[in-house]
Amino acid sequence: MDPANTNQSYITVDHVGQPDQDTYFTLDVLSKFYLTPHHKLNKEFLEKELYPHIKRVKKCDKKRILVTGGAGFVGSHLVDRLMLMGHEVIVIDNFFTGSKTNILHWIGHPNFTLMEHDIVTPILIQVDEIYHLACPASPPAYQFNPIKTIETNVIGTSNMLSLAKQVKARFLLTSTSEIYGDPLEHPQKETYWGNVNPIGPRACYDEGKRAAETLTYAYQTQEKVDVRVVRIFNTFGPRMDENDGRVVSNFIMQALQNQDMTIYGDGNQTRSFQFVHDLVDGLISTMRNEFTLPINLGNPVEFTILELAEELKGFIGSESKLVKLPAVQDDPKQRRPDISLAKEKLDWEPKFSRQQGLLETIQYFRQIVEADCEATRRS
Ligand SMILES: O=c1ccn([C@@H]2O[C@H](COP(=O)(O)OP(=O)(O)O[C@H]3OC[C@@H](O)[C@H](O)[C@H]3O)[C@@H](O)[C@H]2O)c(=O)[nH]1
Known about the structure:
This protein is 39% helix and 15% strand. By secondary structure, the protein is α/β, with parallel strands linked by helices. The two termini are 27 Å apart. Uridine-5'-diphosphate-xylopyranose is lined by residues 137-139, 176-178, 232, 234, 246-247, 250, 262-264, 269, 271, 305, 328, 331.
């Protein structure tokens, strides 16, 4: 990528977490996992550096942590961080959208367990904390099998809450900005109840997550389960699936291959994107905090989809054309989080600029495109 295209008008962040805390790591420790091409992760990398160095934790501070959806995009970054922090991590994933490649570097580590399991079926595991992420998150993926999506959100969440009750674990639900629907309040505060179409194509996800929130607080009130809820706004980063269908991965893959960049609608709809490492900081802070009501986690810098396309095209130096396709039904016209609550309760706000995050994400996808080209050449 041509650095001249980036304007370099942003501050580069070289770490995640808080400098004086166990969550602190330099970015290169994490990026080695996903910027190392996958074929190298399989061979030289794992042979030379069998397992990444993890922090030593006193036995009494070491937790058994369940991450549902831990092989997915966000889940795998959370797993990296919890493993590096020295905890014991159990991943449950049905691999519908998750991938073993995302967590390959931990397989076989004594602190790590991977279980292929669908949370729609109950399971009993002794754990201290549950990060509940399992659910397809990209609109094409969650609309592919809407019955399964709502079952995952309702039956799956109910099973995980029941597990939390049985083993007395703290439970964190990852809800979504989609519960605000096509919002009439802007920016969105946690107090806003939303504008959701209950029978539209997005309902399996947004109504599913709304029901998951309802279940979570029902378990808190009725069964005294110790719960946390975060509402995650648009997030991007390395390990998004190249065929995921969300805008950042679509645009980067298209621009890298000089294909048409597909704008749905007029491109004036807005979003606010956070880099995945900021989100992981927010998830861990929420789990540790005593505040139990929903908290927005997102980056409040808002821009249009057209601006995003132009920016990515410029960063990549692509010859792609921007083409306008019909708008998606019920597509929210605007979205931006109010993060005052996260600042007040968690002392959290995003550290990474969009530019730095996008450049690292481009680097990740570039290696995938190059590997695909190489495979095609060899076949
Ligand atoms: O190729 C594309 C893909 C998407 N888009 C548009 O870009 C915007 C963002 O689309 P995405 O699919 O990335 O994400 P959405 O905002 O629609 O949904 C997301 O919301 C928050 C999260 O919970 C989920 O990750 C996801 O459901 C939409 O307006 C969409 O129509 C394009 O213009 N072109």
